Fold this protein.
Amino acid sequence: MLNVQDLHASYGPVLALQGVSLYVPEGGVIAVLGPNGAGKSSTLRAISGLLRASSGTIEFAGQRIDRLSPEAIVRLGISQVPEGRQTFAELTVRENLTIGAYTRGDGSGIRRDMDRVFSYFPVLAQRSKQTAGLLSGGEQQMLAIGRALMARPKLLLLDEPSMGLAPMLVREIFSIVETITREERLTIVVVEQDANLALDIAQHGYVLEAGAVVLDDAAAHLRANEAVRRAYLGY
Amino acid sequence: MRPSLRIIAWIILGLALIFFPYFETWPGFHWFLVHLEEQTGINLSTFQMTTFAVWLVVLMGLNLLTGYSGQISLGHGALVACGAYIAAILLEHTATPVGVAVLVGGLGTAVIGFGIGIPSLRLSGPYLAIATLALIVSMPQLLKLDAISDWTGGATGIDLPLARAPGSIDGLVDDRQWLYYSVMAPAVIMTIIAWNIARSPIGRAFVAIRDSEVGAQQMGVNLAVYKTLAFALSALYAGVGGALFAYSQDFVSPDSFSVFQSITFLVAIVIGGLGSILGAILAAAFFTFQSGVINRLTELLPAVDQLRWAIYGGALIIVMVFLPTGAAGFVRQVASGEAWRATTARLQALLPGSRSAHANEATIGREGSQQEGDSDE
Amino acid sequence: MDQFEEFAQQVVTGVSIGSIYAIVALAIVMIYRSTGVVNFAQGEMATFTTFISWSLMLRMDFWPAFALAIVIAFFLGGTLEMVVMRPVERASPLNSIVVTLGLLAIFNSVALWRWGPLPKPFPRPDVFTGSALTVGSVTISRLNIGILAIALLMMLALYLLFSYTKIGLAMRATAQNPTASRLVGINVSRMLSLGWAISASVGAVAGMLTAASLTLSVDMMFAILIFAFAGAVLGGLDSPAGAVIGGLGVGVIQALAGNYISTQVDVLVAFMVIVGVLVVRPTGLFGRRVIRRV
């Protein structure tokens, strides 16, 4: 479904990606692991169009998307849950979800999807009239995921969903994500510092270092891999 | 330019400034001045050069504030007015020597600038620009207040006696020449001081603030202290300039300082070149001689008079977008032979399709935000 | 007239003047919120479009010309954002402020060149003329009622736009977080142009109302811009509701100062308001963020 080939990109003079290739099959959950600054977030930003690739290709559902704007990419069915949540702090929870469906015109479908998001994250329903800035970190993460779902994506990009959250909360969010993946038949690419969690829900994983893929294997194999265990799993 | 060439250029400039008042008594130079004014509207008389020195001080200070520290004052004329009135009141009501009046005018204005600056400078962004704009717009009302009209002369302002050369040097210089020296000398001194400030740690802190407040803070620059210092310094310059203005024009009134004058200050330093001493000098030349040139152009094309502000406005925008270092930057580029390369690079960056040239640039936020800006400073 | 009635009369007068300040302040805040640019040309753009409406009114009735001028202002504002402001929008405030000053100079000068320095009588529609209304001994002219009504209507329209429409929601989202806005599919550049377009239209209304209450002249909006800035700072530069309340407040302060102190200090009062707010409460009455972007 998503095919990234030899992607290079940089922030001004700083090289971020130096030849990343990855393949995401339809319906799969792919984990992207690696240390800070390895290019994990940059990979997602390149896929969603926020970071322009200097060379390499990104193909989604048979179509080149590496020269498209983020706006156009959303319309094709890729939604990103950005690092640090980035909810609209001064909009209410409901408005945040409504704006998530900005690309859609089907009023009744939007209402149905909003109800579904509320059923996945009941706390958002309780707080639907509050401004997002008043939510806790975990609630904001749920809102960011909910907002991305409102675009009815085929592919969901999750950037560090566990960042700054208590472990309990992270488990909860991940289990909800797993449910959503199953029920919505979504394809997911998740970038995580916490490799344990990510490999729990993923079938396949990529390990990035210094802007390039250094390891690429089934989740179970990665778990068993000595180097990965020492570096990212901590046992 | 090689350093030795540079020193020679400065020495020639210094000698020219010292002997300038005598040039116009030479028939050949006199003929040149007359024709220059006839053709271009530029009046290079000794008195105009005196006026140039006044604006040099003011614009040098504004450039320290805006060009170096990146803060914007839209009402610098109000500070000039403070210095002018302080000096004029001292000269009118007391027997203060001119030098002291100028000094008090400068220091008094610095204190006033400090008072105005503190509240606006605590904040980033446009607050100082807004506050100073409101200040210059309300300045005439302030100066005309009945409560202080015994001192300020209300709407009529203050008429000062003409500047006279002291009797002791009678015959050596006439009054006009004396005025020239007594204004040009402080102007040169203030320029040298500004040059030294710009190269000192203080100047570097200013530039750091201009380039990025966050970055400056990380380098350990205390924003509040340095921003206020920049404003007080530029107020000092404005005050000295104002005092010299009052002394040299022997007249001040509320109408001497308009909003459009203050905006012209800004036009001048942007066109002259922000963040450069040479820029301030070119700015003062622009400010002093622009009205003559505009008048001359109006003779040729009547619409110019009314469209003068459109021309300045267009120049502001074009310089800001295409040549952020202004005329001074252009002069430096020509001197180093880089002008052609820099200009074509800038044009290329603006052409459609240049996106691919910048393809690797981060498009955080939005497209089209690439700033070539001061990259070649 | 007893003291209370005198006071009430001044407040009423102040609210009528203040409603124009409120509109201009609203226009300023709209652009500042969405792009971080303070548009010093706001007043001159309004004057310019008012001159256009005046030319139109020589050929047609008041209201069609009024509406047409708003539309022209809309396209003028949007075009300016795309052509002139875009290169400097995300640069330092220095660059953007200097560019808006350039625009100020250009609009002022072109209006002077095209329409001359003499003030022109500006038509008033019939509903604005006729006898003043009186409550007790407080009077308010029909024109002032009309201005207040148009101002309120426009604020209501903007409120509805920003609260209940998809495009309004997208504009608010863009102002808060451009990156996240792009990720939900909003064309951020288009929203910024739209912000300038709407702001210019709002300014045009203020310009036409000003011309109708005074006369049309090249410099008519300059003092008003200062009062509007005072209103915007008072209300909080990033708060539309604050802009409206701040603008009305400054109008009332001006009227009271004019009555009880002197009519010759009105702009000075605006300056005092700005400095006072910056000393006491830099975010203004309703503003949230002190530092927008550094």
About this structure: The radius of gyration of chain C is 19 Å. The CA atoms of residues 41 and 104 of chain C lie 4 Å apart. Residues 3-35 of chain C form the longest helix (33 residues).
